[in-house]
């Protein structure tokens, strides 16, 4: 369950603000840039996730994900083309598995005799590519955009693990697992494979309705339909047991899993990308102040927020995401939009973080 939640990019901030200070018409060539990153964990902090779950803070949970989109390019009139970089990880698991994993990684005392229900589903990829987009308005109160991304992928894991585990003593446990997964790197059992590459595409769309001078509705969807086709993809189907083990200098068990079953190569494997939805509604109480509702749905989970807006030197917004107790701060002015969200200011406690930054003429 090692999950790299952070990918470090070089963001051309100076370039971004220099272009922002130079006005451009929508019917001229102009640069654009956008970043959208959202990492979410129900169990341990993002910093502890990067440290293989080692840390003092833990809550039972069923999911972790990170969704990262970086795009830069040129737009002209209604059209744009840009270079795209994406990193997506989606992990879903039982609360029992999250608890057992945290206990064993931190060498905590196990509840002797307890049985743990084990299930893990993983879907992840990394890709580079290009995105082509078109945007326009209809009847002065509807704005829309559609995009098509071509993806060249170089990392993937998709599959499931299920079974059970039993705590034999405070320092010892055993498990029996069934495995079925495809990958570019075998992070579970270090099988040496020749990495496949994948080619694919994804559609995205957005539409904004001005329902009245005071009411506005926005709908966005990424990966409305998306698929990556992998050739010569390694796979493992089989079972794993804890029969091979030893104890470290502190007397805590260390397991070198045994695996049996079948390893091979799929000539063709299709990885489906799951849609990511956003819905926003804003009502302006007057020229300066408004209220809004938001919802996000991704990886089988929906989050909701309520917020307020204030217009002065741009549009400011504060939103509170109810379930995950996250505060989002946003600001938009002209062609520049930015928002940041965090559920805790302490690095060792923060389980959710998102950052959105966009510069687009005429957005």
Account of the 3D structure:
- The chain is mostly beta strands and 363 residues long.
- The chain contains three helices and 18 strands.
- It has helices at 13-20, 46-50, 95-105; strands at 30-41, 63-76, 79-93, 115-138, 142-169, 172-183, 198-210, 215-241, 245-247, 253-255, 258-273, 276-284, 289-298, 301-311, 315-321, 326-333, 336-342, 352-359.
- The strands form two sheets. It has a 16-stranded antiparallel sheet that branches.
- It is globular.
User: Could you list the spans in which at least 5 consecutive residues all have pLDDT below 50?
Assistant: 1-25
**Integer-rounded radius of gyration:** 23 Å
Give a count of the beta strands, DSSP E runs of length 2 or more.
18
Largest sheet features: 16 strands, antiparallel
The helix/strand order is: HEHEEHEEEEEEEEEEEEEEE
Structural class determined from secondary elements: mainly beta
Strand content: over 45%
Helix percentage: under 10%
Integer average pLDDT:
91
Number of helices: 3
> What is the overall silhouette?
globular
What distance lies between the first and last C-alpha atoms, to the nearest angstrom?
Answer: 39 Å
């Amino acid at each position: 369950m090692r999950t790299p939640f952070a990918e470090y990019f070089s963001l051309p901030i100076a370039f971004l603000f220099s272009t922002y200070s130079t006005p451009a018409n929508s019917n001229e060539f102009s640069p654009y840039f956008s970043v959208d990153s959202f990492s979410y964990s129900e169990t341990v902090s993002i910093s502890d996730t990067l440290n293989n779950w080692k840390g003092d803070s833990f809550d039972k949970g069923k999911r972790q994900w990170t969704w990262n989109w970086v795009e830069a390019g040129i737009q002209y009139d209604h059209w744009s083309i840009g270079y795209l970089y994406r990193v997506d990880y989606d992990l879903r698991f039982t609360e029992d598995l999250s608890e057992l994993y945290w206990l064993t990684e931190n060498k905590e005392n196990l509840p002797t005799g307890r049985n743990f229900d084990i299930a893990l589903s993983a879907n992840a990829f990394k890709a580079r590519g290009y995105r082509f987009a078109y945007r326009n308005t209809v009847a002065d109160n509807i704005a829309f955009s559609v995009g098509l991304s071509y993806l060249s992928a170089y990392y993937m894991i998709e599959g499931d693990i299920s079974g059970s585990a039993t705590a034999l003593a405070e320092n010892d446990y055993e498990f029996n697992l069934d495995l079925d997964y495809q990958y570019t790197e075998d992070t579970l059992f270090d099988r040496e494979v020749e990495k496949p590459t994948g080619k694919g595409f994804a559609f995205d769309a957005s539409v904004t309705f001005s329902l009245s001078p005071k009411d506005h509705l926005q709908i966005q969807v990424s990966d409305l339909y998306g698929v990556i086709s992998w050739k010569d993809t390694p796979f493992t189907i089989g079972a794993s047991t804890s029969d091979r083990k030893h104890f470290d200098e502190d007397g805590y068990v260390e397991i070198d899993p045994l695996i049996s079953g079948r390893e091979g190569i799929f000539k063709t494997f299709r990885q489906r990308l799951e849609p990511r939805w956003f819905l926003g509604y804003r009502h302006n109480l007057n020229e300066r102040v408004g209220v809004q509702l938001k919802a996000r749905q991704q990886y089988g989970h929906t989050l909701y927020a309520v917020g307020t807006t204030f217009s002065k030197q741009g549009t400011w917004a504060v939103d509170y995401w109810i379930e995950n107790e996250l505060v989002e701060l946003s600001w938009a002015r002209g062609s520049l939009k930015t928002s940041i969200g965090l559920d805790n200011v302490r690095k060792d406690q923060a389980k959710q973080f998102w950052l959105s930054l966009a510069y687009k003429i005429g957005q």
